[in-house]
Amino acid sequence: xxxxxxxxxxxxxxxxxxxxxxxxxxxxxxxxxxxxxxxxxxxxxxxxxxxxxxxxxxxxxxxxxxxxxxxxxxxxxxxxxxxxxxxxxxxxxxxxxxxxxxxxxxxxxxxxxxxxxxxxxxxxxxxxxxxxxxxxxxxxxxxxxxxxxxxxxxxxxxxxxxxxxxxxxxxxxxxxxxxxxxxxxxxxxxxxxxxxxxxxxxxxxxxxxxxxxxxxxxxxxxxxxxxxxxxxxxxxxxxxxxxxxxxxxxxxxxxxxxxxxxxxxxxxxxxxxxxxxxxxxxxxxxxxxxxxxxxxxxxxxxxxxxxxxxxxxxxxxxxxxxxxxxxxxxxxxxxxxxxxxxxxxxxxxxxxxxxxxxxxxxxxxxxxxxxxxxxxxxxxxxxxxxxxxxxxxxxxxxxxxxxxxxxxxxxxxxxxxxxxxxxxxxxxxxx
Length: 431
Known about the structure:
The chain has helices at about 5-10, 20-45, 50, 60-70, 70-100, 105-150, 155-170, 180-195, 200-215, 220, 240-250, 270-275, 300-310, 330-340, 365-375, 385-395; strands spanning about 225, 230-235, 250-255, 260-270, 295, 315-320, 325-330, 350-355, 360, 405, 410-415, 420-430. It has about 425 residues and is of the alpha+beta class. The strands form 3 sheets. A 5-stranded antiparallel beta sheet has the order 8-9-12-11-10, covered by helices on one side. Strands 1-7-6-5 form a 4-stranded mixed beta sheet. The longest helix is centred in the N-terminal third of the chain and has 45 residues, at about 105-150. The relative contact order is 0.06.
């Protein structure tokens, strides 16, 4: 192996070390620096400010650290830029070290890559990830202010890359996930995976699981289907609309023209009440607010943001043809996250034991909930989602009250039904 390149010799400290050892020493130093930068990047990527600051000193140093943690994503990118630079330098120096005549060829480059690839993967990726999980918070507390100064020369490049990244995401119609959301999910996942069973109540675990699953749920999964929408006709009087709202127990309802497929807006009980006591009551049409229309495929997390930004509490879900698919409210979205927020009407529970072994169940209850509550094994991977849908699938038609059928030694009877859907089902185990 030949002497190191002249440019590298100029950087080496004076001494009596053999050039071969000097070259090897520089390779090890660069590899170690890349590993340290990889650890810093991984620690910043999983940093939770509340956790990092828990053992931090008070005063100006704590405030400084808190300010830097708010920019963790950009600092992680800076660490990544320095790390890639170190990796490329390591490969280049290794290739030069392996040459015998000072010239590069394909063989030298291939050998350098074969040696560098496993070394870099192990020592600058896998090992730093493990170190960040174990000691990342302490590393940030002790070195983040120093690293911030160290990364200032590449801060302009970070800003440029962030702008390019945002432009690409916009061009591909991909919504960027906020850093706060990523850290929330990271923290919850860490708690869910790392906590012992005795450390969390079942309700707390369920809430964490709901938050983690929340981002993958779309509007179609939480909406009230079209056949169950309560609406008000456009030509109705204010008195009729008020009575309709009182009868169904809702604070707001959609207003339709001719049929529920042509929803023209929404109306709330407060507006109707205020209009009724006015000296000159306006017609119902003047109180109707334009509807918020959303597609079935809109994620619930996006819908929640839409509710917040537009100060709405109800949206009409439309299908691919522009027809009404269902209705979703802010309560539906929040219930997906924290469970049902409203009590059942008149204190009625969704599953009620009428006699020993005989239960009356709301037909709108999800099949999985029925199975869990009653210890049943109704198939959950079918076209239906609710107990009412299961009954319709079994009978193949809209049943009348009193009709029944058996499955797996369980008797299912239609306790209550309207002309359009099943409302309540009685479930009884065979003696």
